[in-house]
Amino acid sequence: VNGPEFPILDGSASMYVDKINEIGIEEQNAPKDYYIIRHKIEIKDEESGSCITILPDEGFSLTTMCSFESKFINSQFATLDDMDAYATEIAPARTFVFVRDIEPLLKANLIKGGDMDNAIVIYERQTTQERLDQLADFLKVPRLDATKLGYIQHKPLVWENECTRHKLLDIIGDMALIGRPIKGRIIATRPGHTINNKFARLMRCEIRKHEIQAPIYDCNEPPVMDVNRIRELLPHRYPMQLVDKVISLGANSIVGVKNVTSNEPFFTGHFPQEPVMPGVLQIEAMAQCGGLLVLNTLEEPERWSTYFMRIDDVKFRQKVVPGDTLLFKVDLLAPVRHGISSMKGYVFVGDKVVSEATFTAQIVKNK
Questions:
Q1: Most buried among 74, 161, 202, 278, by the most CB within 10 A?
Q2: Which of 222, 220, 233, 353 is nearest to 305 (CA)?
């Protein structure tokens, strides 16, 4: 391999940022599949005092607070509110090590090939001149005065809190193990790779439990389509109009809402003693949302109708009862071709998927 080997890098991400800038980034057409934090998630290590908390936020941001047994870097904090600042404010932060920790690392063969130019070295507890000379000889650097405490390095600190910025850099790297971008604010107290990896495992479990996330619904926001606009596009009328409003509409995705009340006509016979919304009507409601999505792509959508051709992979996971608010999320699986559209739909109550299906519809011009 040509060039420096990985063990003698300085622990920063500068080399990777430079290489990415050199090659360039090509934006993808597909939107990022973020996992959105909906509630507080936390992990603690009582023994070390380490704690990582993630809270809901509109983007991804981090705050790291560190406390070391050293008068040189006793307490520090670092914050990254915008990932656009990562390349200049976080990536160049170098790793750091205390002189008291170097000797055990050398004995364990964990810093083979390292030297004092590759890290911020902190000499904060006086040792004997003989031991410091032995260490300097092993690292092949000039011998130092054992009475002078402080930073041992040829390169000055980039920032006063460079050590804590490197801890923040570590969190970003360890969070990449999750395999999915996140929207949330991380607050880390005394972080390290051990608790970072525990937190990453916890987040992977959380994502598996909520692999399909419910859309965010704010009842205070005006709808994209109200019930009157829906009536203009769909031929359905009471009691078969099953979408009350549309709250999100894109080129390939739609989110609709239905408020389930005790006055629904189907509850009269399904079932009198235990009212449950029929699953077929949940699928019908999803299909109506899908129809609105497809019709929105057409000129003069009022002149077209959509009809079921096929339903597959139907699953019912939970009962729907009076008082529930249903959120329908329907996505196009492929572009509409020859008047045929394939879609995947989910029905949510709160954060839970209550039913899902894949369906195919035909778009027909009204006579």
A1: 161
A2: 233
- CA nearest 280: which of 32, 288, 272, 336? 288
Please list, in sequence order, all residues whose beta carbon lies within 8 angstroms of the beta carbon of residue 19, skipping any fewer than 6 positions away: none
The helix (run of H) or strand (run of E) holding residue 194 is helix 193-209
Q: Which residues lie below 8 Å from residue 182, measured CB to CB, with a gap of 6+?
A: 34, 35, 36, 37, 54, 60, 175, 203
Query: What domains does the chain contain, in order, with CATH numbers?
Result: 6-21+31-209 (3.30.1700.10), 227-365 (3.10.129.10)
What pLDDT tens digit does each residue of the chain (367 aa) get? 333 333 445 678 888 888 888 888 888 877 788 999 999 999 999 888 899 999 999 999 999 999 877 777 778 899 999 999 999 999 999 888 787 777 677 667 666 655 556 677 787 778 888 887 877 777 677 787 888 877 776 678 889 898 899 999 999 999 988 989 999 999 999 999 999 999 999 999 999 888 899 999 999 999 999 999 999 999 999 999 999 999 999 989 999 999 999 999 999 999 989 999 999 999 999 999 999 999 988 888 888 889 989 999 999 999 999 999 999 999 999 988 888 999 999 999 999 999 999 999 999 988 7
Whether the model pTM is above 0.85: no
Question: Angle at the Cα of 314 (from 363 to 281), degrees rounded to 5?
Answer: 65
Tell me the residue ranges of DSSP E strands in 29-114.
35-36, 41-45, 50-55, 60-67, 75-80, 96-98
> CA–CA separation, 242 vs 7, rounded Å?
62
Residue 236 and residue 230 in contact, taking contact as beta carbons nearer than 8 Å: no
With a CB cutoff of 8 Å and minimum separation 6, the contacts of 319 are 276, 277, 354
The C-alpha atoms of residue 110 and residue 78 are separated, in whole angstroms, by 28
Q: Give catalytic residues, as residue numbers.
A: 193, 270
Distance of alpha carbon 188 from alpha carbon 214, whole angstroms: 27
Between CA 197 and CA 40 the distance in angstroms is 18
